[in-house]
């Protein structure tokens, strides 16, 4: 049975690196391991989850368009056509035809826009803040949902 990585505050998690995109704790499995220092993550929770489960390189770096397509198909069961459209669309919008890192997806006003449910808007001249959860956004959304606003029943 494979090990399951702890949260990023645990000792195991604090000690290891995802060198070369692999996790030395969970090995060649799709078990969950959170990102560690130096890993790259995106504004997209779905793609981050693919990296946390090793469908994308766990360090979130050196991802080819084919790697992205394969991860979407294997991880989420997307059709190859949809995965192809999304992935090729992404590299065209970014203008990056070689390998990408997940953080490249945060280039402001390319794919990333000021429209996140959980992240603050980008500061002038900077990329979107993708690493910090804006707790006030989360509280507003939670209250609205609990009061039945915005949700169709
Ligand atoms: C190649 C495929 C994909 C790319 C390049 C991509 C890229 C992105 C980017 C750049 C954002 C940030 C948007 C912003 O803040 O303006 C985003 C957000 C998001 N993506 Fe993806 N994504 C992909 C696939 C998916 C898939 C398959 C799902 C669902 C399973 C998904 C779910 C989401 C959600 C829910 C958000 C909103 C997060 C928020 O409110 O902060 N994405 N995506």
UniProtKB/TrEMBL annotation:
Q: What is this protein called?
A: Heme haloperoxidase family profile domain-containing protein
Query: Which keywords appear in this protein's UniProt record, sorted alphabetically?
Result: Heme, Iron, Membrane, Metal-binding, Oxidoreductase, Peroxidase, Transmembrane, Transmembrane helix
Q: Enumerate the spans annotated as Heme haloperoxidase family profile domain.
A: 28-153
Identify a single GO molecular function assigned to this protein: metal ion binding
Q: Which family does it belong to?
A: Belongs to the chloroperoxidase family.
Report the transmembrane regions from the record: 76-97
Species annotation: Pisolithus microcarpus 441
State whether keyword Chloroplast applies.
no
One Pfam family recorded for the sequence: Peroxidase_2
InterPro entries, from UniProt?
Chloroperoxidase (IPR000028), Chloroperoxidase-like_sf (IPR036851)
Q: What cofactor requirement does the entry state?
A: heme b
